[in-house]
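Worked Example 4.2. Consider the chain below.
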Amino acid sequence: MSILDVQDNIDEILERALQMKKHKDKESKPLTGVILAMIFEKASTRTRVSFEAGMKKMGGDAIFLGKNDLQLGRGETIQDTALVLSRYVDVIMYRAFKSQDIYELAQYATIPVINGLDDKEHPCQVLADFLTIKEKKGTLSGLNFVYVGDGDNNMAHSYMLGCPLVGMNIKIVSPKKYWPKPEYVKKAQQLGDACVEIMENTDSPLKNADVVATDTWVSMGDEQAKKQRLQDFQGYTIDTHLMSQAKNSAIFLHCLPAYYGKEVTKEVAHGPQSVIFDEAENRLWAQMAIISWLLD
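Applying the procedure from the previous section yields the following structure tokens:
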């Protein structure tokens, strides 16, 4: 599942999430008897807990399958895994190293497959972020979204695809060697009338920003290049001085985990403009909405 796979239904999913959150104290078990299989090749805090808790809140259940819990790790094909799991459970969430593995699983599964993250995109996180922005700003359309950091990672890609779909202007501020791949830039520019801008750091990259976001400079899978990356991203830390360039009403997002003093200072991440823990909570409501929408 890419953000593009739900592009015609983003408003519906976000509204469903808002209603679930608003009525969270009301007893409702719409997914009684429904089972979610969660395949994790990459470790996670928020993805695992939000999906598992969300299923239990809706009356269903979730099965955690680490990379050593499946025969995939011993050479069973993705096709056979997909066909077998489809006989046992109702939905699959896959957090993978390679996007092609998710698409192959979805190709052969006879049940819905949710992309919990891959090397190219992180659609569930972006939907949770849009939910957070909508809560705080009341709208998405017309806002100026600025992402600072690694422009060629899964968060930047998903923001680039997602923002034009909801009418948000997006600016990626990144060292040139980490700019998004051209196909993502081209696709983003084709998706709507929103402005899509890619640039290196300047004196005022956050000017007129309504939303400021960043992500770790060293994603899972990039650890061998950590030393070089930390050097390359010097000057791209979001600190109080940089954040002051944004609008006074701007909010700060980070999908977490955060590495303070690297991509962001703790003063910003825990400061008055930060909404990172509301954002983290909204993984729960966004994913509950995605699952219930898929199964309706």
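The chain is about 40% helix and 15% strand. The chain has two domains: 3-122+283-295, 123-279. Compare this with Example 4.1 before moving on.
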